[in-house]
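S1.2 Input.
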Amino acid sequence: GDEQVTKQLYSEAISNYQAALVIKPGDKGATAKLTNAKGLLDKLNADKAKQEAEFNRLLTAGDEQVTNQFYSEAISNYQSALVIKPGDKGATAKLANAKGLLDKINADKAKQEAEFIRLVSMGDEQVVKQMYTEAIQTFRSALGLKPGNEQVRSKLDHAQNLFDKWQADQRKVMEEKTRQAEKRRRFDELIKQADQLFTDGSMRDSRKLYVQSLQIFESELHPKESITRIDTLLAQQERVRLLALQKSDEEKKLRDAGSYQLNIGMADKQLSQSNWTVAVYYYQEALRYKDGDKYATEKILSCNKMIEGSVTAEKMKEYEDNLKQGDKELKDKNYSSARFHFGRAYAIMPWEEYPKNQLKSIEKLLSSTNWEGKDAAYGEAIKKAEEAIAKKNFAVARFYFQSAITLRPEEAYPRQQLKRLSEEK
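S1.3 Output.
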């Protein structure tokens, strides 16, 4: 791949780097080489396309100039086209024709002088319009008529200097783009680290990185919103801590004794009552007496997820009821009903592994079942009805449950679901 890049065989190099990444997926070196080869190939293709477009533009411009009897400009354009495609028969023929016509017109001195004046005027106009490459060609054409004219030579030098400055400005633009790309890369890296720290519960460290990211791009919304969210959570925890200091004598004894077990007990009690923020406070207090404790740390992360997910006591009960009913339906081999209840549990707490794993197990059981005829149609109707419930398309869900009853009237599950939909309505 490296040899092929050196030889500008970029397509072959890309294939080899992709093959290398099949052997070592995610290898940074191979990934960087692949990105570089793709960029070089894109640039090569873009350059070819630009050359072809420029070649056609020059021929078209030359043709128009021949039509308008601007033979010097036409010759310059055809010559420029031949620089792009040396030996091109069409361009060579057009160039020969334009030269012949120019030779003919040059026989008339008055016309030659008029042509010279016109070229100088056109070059001046092109400089004003910042068409520097065209102006350079135009002044060169004028010098072709009067090679020793110092005024046109000065204009040509001026146009060349302006063109050089324009190219330097373009390089600065590209350098600025590269600098901005590096800033973006650093910003994205900081955001990724900050997001991970927040997920891990290290909110203050996460906040520091969000602040650093705003020093790079101060108008970005994500770090601003994240800082606000962290400040809200920290303030909430602080309020809970201050309230806890004013609690009962039992809490005072807990603080004075510094008992890990008492803090865990209080935290677990608050957890069972779905008082997540209070539970977080007590788990954090427990960590004061047993630094790095796995149980308390995991419970804090779990409570933060509950807070972020707005899981109330009612939602928690609904989650547990659906798990219990899902287990019962699964035990009775009512797979569709079990999938429904586990699905509802998963919708409440999508980070929990148990309902997710149960749904996967049910899908395997359903996919391994030999459905035929009406059974297959029944299964498909139940599946579509449950998908409609998940999307809150209750009218569609009722339609498919009714279709399932028509296919298998002895089944209780679709009737139960229709009843539930009517009650929820």
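S1.4 Remarks. The longest helix spans residues 150-199.
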